[in-house]
Write a structure and sequence with these properties.
about 0% strand; mainly alpha; about 350 residues; 17 helices
Length: about 350
Amino acid sequence: MESDSPGTLAALGGLGIGAVVGATALLSNFCALGAVADILFARDWRRMRAWLLAGGIAIVGTQALDSLGLIQIDRVLAPYVLWLPTLIGGVGFGFGMALAGGCINRALVRLGAGSLKSLVTVVVVGLVAAATSGGMLAPLNDTLSRWGRIDIMIAPEGLHRILAVLDAFDAEAVRWAVTAVVGGGLIVYCLMDDWFRASRDQWAAGLIIGGMIPVAWLMSGGTEALNFAAPTSHLLLAAATDRSAFTFSMAVVTGVPLGAFIAGLLTRNLSLETYTNREDLPRNLIGAALMGFGGTLALGCTFGQGLSGVATLSLSALIAVAGMLFGCLWGIRYFEAGGLWSGLRLTFKRGV
């Protein structure tokens, strides 16, 4: 959900939050695809632990703000779960991420560092996302949403809300029990590892980016946090039609490459990147299209559902994350096996 008129303060806040995320991601190489690849090929969990730490901090911070009444997470939790489009979208996004060499946030970071290839990726993501939400692909989106919907009459789809109703416990007690187990558990799991604690850039990235999630919820008035799928399409449409319609999420999208550019300039880490061979272009285009389509179906990307959505303890976010992880594994195995179905069989055979 997006605010119609975020105000100057919120827009500047979104720009600043995006810049912090972009700079941090560039300096630490914070990347969901890279985290999975590190585990598969090097048994290195540090970048994945950075993601998990960010998730744990996002959960604790977001739930604390909601508990204090500073935001109202129930406003973004629906009384239903769109399990089918969320799952299909998550798988498509994860596979596209593998083909394109990174998620949307990674493409924005690379764009700021000088990648013309990532500029094409971002534009294609935005165009396909727009087509999926309100263009030629919208009927498919609507059909999947009708077929794959489970109504939850007892409470919003937040895990803590559902458990509070079913177990007849105090809602706040259930919230903090779930937050402690999920959010606190992720933080403890990450910090228990000596190698990760010794990797200052990784734990710092998890701390900073995870902290930006509750800050974003607060700055947006509790209507949105960090998401790069739909907002990318909104930014492109606004640039082509009405530049005054500048929302909080669009400010965040703008801030990411800006922050990456500033960090790259200060560290002399800017370089022009283009396509290296003929296979590179179509692979990236297909990957970007899958991310635009899948990110819209799943109602978010690795940040929109993976960090921001999980921070609300949303069931839909958990489904989307599972789909993205599977799709990412499938995409990586596809490169290994040299075929779509061979990669799928290899995914089930080897997993992580």
